From TrEMBL:
Lineage: Bacteria, Pseudomonadati, Myxococcota, Myxococcia, Myxococcales
Coiled-coil features, chain-numbered ranges: none
Keywords: Membrane, Transmembrane, Transmembrane helix
Keyword NAD tagged: no
The keyword Nucleotide-binding is assigned to this record: no
Protein origin, superkingdom: Bacteria
Biological process, per Gene Ontology: lipid metabolic process
Occurrences of domain Fatty acid desaturase (ranges): 43-276
TM stretches of this protein: 12-33, 39-60, 127-149, 198-218
Name assigned to this protein: Fatty acid desaturase
Organism: Melittangium boletus DSM 14713
Length: 306
């Protein structure tokens, strides 16, 4: 096996089995949410989907770092399939995620703090869109828009404006201009085909599909900044190794060990527990998440600009 970091080989077979099982689980939840007569059964299907599709997302996350499978071709193929269940375009997700690693906790990514010159309304709107799951909707919509109109990113950047920098748009959208347009379009078509195949093959209803993805949006989006909120303003140290129940951590494939991941992004999920610093603060997910509902805070210090 290809080794990525000391003695941490990519668990390729395990990843493939998990991806297959999670995709089947997602399909089953979508079917139940669409066909069950009892409302509690439909709601239960949506809740389960919100967790199982986070397993799919965690495997997509592995693929963006090239540690889902030792073969680059297989890694990207599995990543594209996982991305179709988000749904998004794999190449776009990878570009945006690697930009996040570059910009983490710099001035371009301090969404939890009000900085000098920030527009307060925009700051709070962005913040609560994360907490309520609305943030998720921008991902599939953006993937479709950039696939159809690649030049759109250039017009949306807000380059040179405080709004573009405040929201991170300037940094993220700049990456879209350099992505292969044909690949973006092909991945968007793949995602559309997978989603259409699910709807047609399983006889999904609009309400069943929407219920599952609304639950997933809320679950996924809630974690996307809880693992960074109020953490040190440092590119590599600015994340938390959050405490959650073991079953949840397993379903998210150790995604809550986020500080360990930012310090060692090439370590596969299976081994991240080895890199959790027992001396570092480890707040619970629920405590950070609840504190986030109070809104962004004033920047406590003025760190050196990066």
């Amino acid at each position: 096996m290809t080794r990525t970091h000391e003695d941490t080989p990519i668990p390729a077979t395990l990843n493939a089995v998990l991806l297959a099982a999670a995709l089947l689980g997602c399909a089953g939840c979508l079917w139940l949410a669409s066909h069950a007569e009892a409302l509690p059964a439909r709601l239960l299907a949506a809740v389960v989907f919100s967790y199982v599709n986070n397993t799919v997302f965690s495997l997509l996350h592995e693929a963006t770092h090239g540690v889902l499978h030792p073969s680059r071709r297989v890694n990207d193929g599995m990543g594209r399939l996982a991305a179709a269940f988000f749904p998004t375009a794999y190449t776009l997700q990878r570009a945006f995620h690697l930009t996040h690693h570059r910009d983490n906790r710099t001035r371009r990514e301090r969404f939890d703090y009000l900085q000098p010159g920030d527009n307060r309304f925009l700051k709070h709107a962005q913040w609560y869109s994360i907490l309520t799951g609305l943030y998720w909707a921008f991902v599939p919509v953006g993937a479709a828009a950039f696939a159809l109109f690649p030049g759109l990113a250039k017009h949306l950047q807000g380059k040179g404006t405080r709004y573009g920098e405040q929201t991170g748009a300037e940094s993220y959208l700049a990456r879209v201009e350099h992505l292969p347009r044909a690949t973006l379009r092909a991945e968007a078509l793949l995602t559309l085909g997978v989603q259409a195949g699910l709807v047609w093959g399983l006889g999904l209803t609009a309400s069943g599909w929407a219920l599952c993805y609304a639950a997933f949006a809320l679950n996924w989006s809630s974690l996307q900044y809880a693992d960074h909120a109020w953490s040190p303003l440092d590119v590599h140290e600015g994340a938390w190794d959050l405490r959650v129940s073991a079953p949840v951590r397993w379903l998210f494939l150790n995604y809550h060990y986020h500080r360990a991941h930012h310090r060692h992004p090439r370590v596969p999920w299976l081994y991240l527990g080895r890199y959790v610093d027992p001396e570092a603060p480890r707040p619970s997910f629920s405590r950070v998440w609840l504190s986030m509902w109070r809104g962004p805070r004033p920047l406590p210090v003025t760190p050196e600009e990066r």
